[in-house]
Structures are given as structure tokens and as C-alpha cells.
Structure prediction request, 347 residues.
Amino acid sequence: MNDLPASLETVRARFAEAAAAASNEETLEELRVAYLGRSGEVTAIRRGIGRLPPPQRPGAGKAINDAVAAMEDVLAQNRDRLAARSAQEALAQRIDVTFPATRPALGSLHPVRRIIDDACAYFERHGFAIVLGPELEPDYYNFDALNIPAEHPAREGFDSFWIRDDLLLRPHTSPMQIRTMQRHHPPVAIVAPGKCYRRDAVDARHLFQFHQIEGLLVAEGVHFGHLKGMLDGLCRALFGESQRVRFRPSFFPFTEPSAEVDTTCPKCRGEAPACSMCGGSGWIELGGAGMVHPNVLREVGYDPNAVSGWAFGFGAERLALTRYEVDDIRRFVDGDVDFLEQLGALA
Ligand code: DAH
Prediction:
């Protein structure tokens, strides 16, 4: 064992090199066990001491102890190195709680839903109840009870989706007038918003599924002035105080007299002869209205000599087009998130 110092030196150098290359604590520990552990390399060398002539033993023991001490230093240094590195990594991966967060993508109410809500809120402020009804209706509620008997030409105006001979997807919300009056004695004051269906080809002004808002007030002494006042107030509530309404004589079987109701074109306010929204007329048509026909009152058991009423039916998409100055009704249903977000940001 004369070359003990030399072999200790190679073992120590090998150990130092391996320790410097270690990339984690576990590897360092494996090295410690392999060199300094109970059956480690250095321990095996130490066991050889017993075979040396006695005079050489103390020198060999000291050399081994020095080597072990040096190797333990190397271990400690490398542990420090690894600890410093993982501290640095942890710092780099630390979550910065002050960093501005990514906002979750929030949806918004659809513009048609918002205008329905706003219109309903206006009527609720005036004491009206909101009622909802079926979208699939017998022809009785859609037509007969509304003074449109089987062969009446007005039925042709409602090109409907028939499910059976006597059952169709409602082409208007007016059936809710009948359902309400059948269930309640006068006075009644309701608005009925909801989906309607017509077999219309889809274009900039038509959808086969759309929404209407129906209104009905029946009580003693109700007259056309009340209707005008309420619809004038509705348009001002929805579109602004300077908004005007116009009533044009018209015909509906379930009202007498009947009117088409228009409101000021918000885009040109009547001042642009080539306006793309109103075609230069200065007015946008919202729907129909009138005084409830005596035949309709009689049908539900009301006495037309005791009570009178007004009704109206407006297209909700029409109201939304007007409010948001949108020129194509299809934009409301084509699912363009940018478009909806833009409108969602408006009041
Ligand atoms: N229901 C009619 C339609 O869809 C609109 C309407 C006109 C409703 C006059 C009414 C009304 O309540 O009084 O064409």
C-alpha cells in the first residue's frame, strides 16, 4: 500500500469531478454513499489499513482522514451550489401576485334581450304585469279568437309553420291577449314578450324566428289617447327624450281603429334623403296597435259596452335595430362576438 497517497488522490479527484457534475441532491447523496458510505470506496481503503505494517498505519490513517475531510468539504460546497440554484429557480417561477391578471371573457346580454328587458321595465313602472306564453299555439288563439276566422284573408299575412292542421308556431304574440283576458276579469294591463315564427325568407329586414312585445290594457274608459301616451313614453324611454312617435291609419282584424306606429329615425332624424336606415322617410316602423275590437272582447266574455282597451305588438328586433342603429337584422343572430361586444359596451 505504498501508493496509498496516489490512489487516494485519484479517488478524491474522481469524486470531486462527479460531485461538480451532480445536478441534484439525490446524486450527491448517491456519491457520498458510493465513496464514504459503509461499503464505499474510501471505507474499503480504510479497511486495508489493518494489513499494513504497524509503523505505517498512523500515516495511512491520517492520509485517509484528510482525504475524507476534503471530500466532505466538496460535498458541502456542492450542496450549497445546488441549494443556491434551486432558490434562484424558485424565484424565477414565483407567482407575482401584483401582476395584472388576465380578465375572464365575460358575456353580455344580447341587444334584443336588453331592449325587451328595458321595454318591460318601462311598462312595469306603469303597473303592467309581464306574462309569457306558449310558442306553439292552436289556431284558435292565433287567429279565430282574434277575429280572424278560417277563411279570412288576413291569415295569409301570417305565413306560418304549421305543426298540425290546428297547431302552429305562433306568428305573433297577440294570442297572449286572449289567454290573459280568458283568465282574468278586467282591468288587465300586461306586456307579453316572446319569440314568434314566420316562413319568411331571411334578409336584412326579416328572420323566420324573431321577437315581439305585445301590450294590452283593458279597463273602463280606456281610449286611444292612453295608447298614444304610453307608446310615446316607451319610445322616449328606449331611445331618448327627443324621440317622436307617429300613428298611421292601418288595418288589423283584432283592433278598431288600427294604426301602424313609427318612431323617429335615430340615424338621420329625417334630415338625410338617402338615409340607409329609413330610406329617407325619417321614420322607422315599429309595429301595429289599436283599440281592441269589440268582437275580441266579446270572445273572452268581456262586455264591450262596459270596458274598452288598447293593444299593440312591436318587433323587438326592430326596436334593437333602431336603438343600436344596426342596418341588418341578421347581425343579431350570426353569433359575431365582436359585434355583440361592441353593442354590449353601449348603454
Ligand atoms: N300581431 C300583429 C302582427 O304581428 C301586430 C299587432 C297589431 C299587435 C295591432 C297588436 C295590435 O296588439 O293591436 O302583425
